[in-house]
Amino acid sequence: MTDTLESLLEAGGSADVSGWDFSWLDGRATEERPSWGYAQQLADRLSRASASLDIQTGGGEVLAEAKTFPPTAVATESWPPNVIKATRVLHPRGVVIVADPDQPPLPFADEAFDLVTSRHPTTIWWEEIARVLQPGGTYFAQHVGPASVFELIEFFLGPQPEARRGRHPDDETAAAEGAGLEIVDLRTARLRIEIHDVAAVVYLLRKVIWWVPGFTVEKYRDRLRDLHNRIQQDGPFIAHSSRHLIAARRPLG
């Protein structure tokens, strides 16, 4: 029996959207993963660091995949539900969670860390990253790239030509170098997403709030109905995420 539009809207609208665990989407949406295996590389770097900082850690899910942490391990997060979740997940592992508004300055001393990391940060303050890195230290991160999931975003908002340039790796490389960092690795990927019902859409737009700012089911009910009918008729809605892996080093000199 096919779920009704209303039951799907209710399911997506009532799901817990705290943290960055997307397992609720199992069976409802799929996304290809980059070939480079960010979590595994992160764990390896953490095992060799002496002091680490993870910026915008979310609920700590990705960081928690690491088996070992350096003697000093800190993570920042701005959204209170995620602060609570990350504290519960990471404090028993010896990682201190600092509530931070994601605005400069970072609440740490100069040259405090030899490893700074982040997965899908919404803001990137390169000068602050460079400031808290020790000479020879590394920023290692997976960023969301340009025009990521714009097929879905533009379905609701219409064409966004100016926004399509945002987060371009060339621009981020220039900004990192402008802050005094050296790019030592940069890889890009464009990955297929399949969305099988509008419950997944509602869940995603409630969770990733910057995709469609001000999203509510009531405000976008007509577009959600259109999308539901389209999926029923044509099959999964196809979009593409954009990612890049970046490693930047603070020079020794």
TrEMBL record:
The keyword S-adenosyl-L-methionine does not apply. GO terms for molecular function: S-adenosylmethionine-dependent methyltransferase activity. Gene3D superfamilies: Vaccinia Virus protein VP39. It comes from the Bacteria. One of its GO terms (biological process) is methylation. The keyword Transferase applies. Signal peptide: none annotated. SUPFAM superfamilies: S-adenosyl-L-methionine-dependent methyltransferases. Keywords: Methyltransferase, Transferase, Ubiquinone. Residues 53-140 form the Methyltransferase type domain. This is Ubiquinone/menaquinone biosynthesis C-methylase UbiE. It comes from Sinosporangium album.
